[in-house]
From TrEMBL:
InterPro entries: Pur-cyt_permease, Pur-cyt_permease_Fcy2/21/22
Family: Belongs to the purine-cytosine permease (2.A.39) family.
Segments for region (Disordered): 1-24
Keywords (A to Z) from UniProt: Membrane, Transmembrane, Transmembrane helix, Transport
Gene Ontology CC annotations of this record: plasma membrane
GO molecular function: transmembrane transporter activity
Protein name: Purine-cytosine permease-like protein
Primary location recorded for the protein, binned into one broad class: membrane
């Protein structure tokens, strides 16, 4: 068996992922370009398929914290907290839902992130061990589409801030131009790749975290908290709110090892878990909480409505608030576009990483123009439906890594067991348990309209794959 250079460098620690030589892998010898001391990530698709070489795994363990922290701060989770309040939960219910939902939502990406240092691969590419080389193309393509959905969410919020900021000074710009400027900024970071994404996340995470924290404290101090013992919402509303909170972080699971695979292989698992979990949980709990607590100030739960309310609250500091919101999409969508490029390559499109980044950003730009008129409905449906697929996908990855033993890094050439389980369980989850403005499943109607599909999907996929994997091993024995 012939190995490409990256695979050969890692052969002492894991089974080579490809059975065919990679004649183009000599691209790895090109000089490393830098910006402000930050090297550009390798542009060749073999970096995705072969993984990071052991000598390049030098990332500090605290760095993933900032990537996942910056993804969960800002107006998107704040608006989500407003939506939770709109579901009718009282303060006690909301506090329980936000804390538990943030815990569950952060735990799964933190778990899948553990596979990064061990495999050296992006998260979606890790799936090929369970899904097969061909079977892995489906979740890769779906997550690529999901990354474009996140582009729409973050850019819609930032565009609203830019429009509001310009309006304060009597200026205006067409929305397409605002979107184009935002996409250009985040595209630059995404094209540079992993290392600049990490650096941008750390720098902006500190600044934006302080600004938004100050806004949140100011808002809560002026508005006060809702009544602890206010009228309680019914179970369907509580389940819907819980799924919303869980989904916000859960949908980042397919990105997790993208930003931990440069950690040294010997990094203790508890440190990897803590870094990712801490970034997600702290940001989610804080900003969902701020959104819920300030919901009374926001009569219109749309990007423009949130911008107007917070700008009015900040008074003379309103421009600072709007600038922070406008800039918040840059690190978030740099992460999205970078990870989308990995997914497109894993889906079988063998183009360079920068080219894949440009394709994803361009489609994200078009999607932004098409989705701005119904932001909240798009936001909720996107999170809920995406979670139905991510939960069983993540369950299969975790079970495979735990049970497959010495063969866990072997890649079936066709469609693996994981792909079959994923399709069947995801289809059942959506058909039976969906509860959104698009479709309500049969099982969801029987439980009062609650959407428990992702929980069902995770458990069902884990059990089905574990049984199937054990049966396969028994036949091979």
């Amino acid at each position: 068996m012939s190995l490409s250079p990256n695979a050969a460098q890692r052969a002492g620690s894991r089974i080579a992922p490809s059975s065919q030589p990679n004649p183009a892998a000599k691209v790895h010898a090109i000089p490393v370009r830098r910006i402000a001391g930050v090297p550009i990530e390798n542009t060749h698709p073999s970096l995705i398929t072969d993984g990071v070489a052991a000598e390049d795994q030098q990332l500090a363990v605290n760095r993933p914290f900032w990537v996942f922290f910056v993804l969960n701060i800002g107006i998107a989770p704040w608006l989500s907290g407003v939506i939770v309040a709109g579901m009718g939960l009282n303060l006690f219910q909301a506090a329980v839902v936000i804390v538990i939902g943030s815990l569950i939502g952060a735990a799964l990406p933190a778990t899948t992130a553990l596979l990064g240092p061990q495999s050296g691969l992006p998260q979606i590419e890790v799936g090929r061990f369970a899904f097969g080389r061909v079977g892995n193309r489906l979740p890769a393509a779906l997550n690529w589409i999901g990354a474009i959905g996140w582009d729409v969410i973050f850019n819609s919020l930032s565009a609203a801030a830019v429009v509001s900021l310009l309006g304060r000074y009597g200026a205006a710009a067409p929305l397409w131009l605002v979107f184009a400027g935002l996409v250009a900024l985040q595209l630059f970071v995404g094209i540079w790749g992993h290392h600049l994404v990490q650096s941008a996340a750390r720098a902006t995470g500190v600044v934006l975290g302080v600004v938004f924290l100050a806004i949140g404290v100011l808002a809560v101090s002026k508005n006060g908290l809702p009544a602890v013992n206010g009228p309680a919402a019914g179970s369907p509303a509580v389940y819907a709110a819980l799924l919303l909170v869980v989904s916000f972080s859960l949908t980042l699971a397919p990105y997790a090892s993208d930003y931990t695979r440069y950690l040294p292989r010997a990094t203790p698992s508890r440190q990897v878990f803590a870094s990712v979990f801490g970034g997600l949980f702290i940001a989610s709990a804080l900003f969902f909480g701020f959104g819920y607590a300030t919901a009374a100030l926001i009569a219109d739960p749309t990007p423009i409505g949130v911008m107007s309310a917070l700008a009015g609250l900040a008074g003379p500091l309103a421009p600072l608030v709007l600038i922070a919101v406008a800039l918040s999409s840059a690190p978030c969508n740099a992460v999205n576009d970078n990870s989308a490029a990995y997914c497109l390559i894993s889906a079988g499109v063998r183009i360079s990483r920068p080219a894949a980044t440009i394709v994803g950003a361009a489609l994200g730009f078009v999607a932004c123009l098409l989705a701005t008129d119904s932001f909240v409905a798009f936001f909720e449906n996107f999170l809920f439906l995406f979670a139905h697929g991510i939960a069983p996908w993540a369950a299969i990855l975790v079970v495979h890594w735990w049970m497959a033993g010495a063969r866990r890094e072997e890649t079936p050439e066709g469609i693996g067991l994981g792909a079959v389980v994923f399709v069947v369980v995801t289809a059942a989850s959506v058909a039976l348990f969906s509860a959104n403005s698009i479709y309500t499943g049969i099982a969801s109607k029987l439980v009062g309209g609650a959407d428990v599909g992702p929980y069902f999907g995770f458990v069902a996929a884990a059990i089905a794959y574990a049984i199937g994997l054990e049966a396969t091993r028994a036949r091979a024995a």
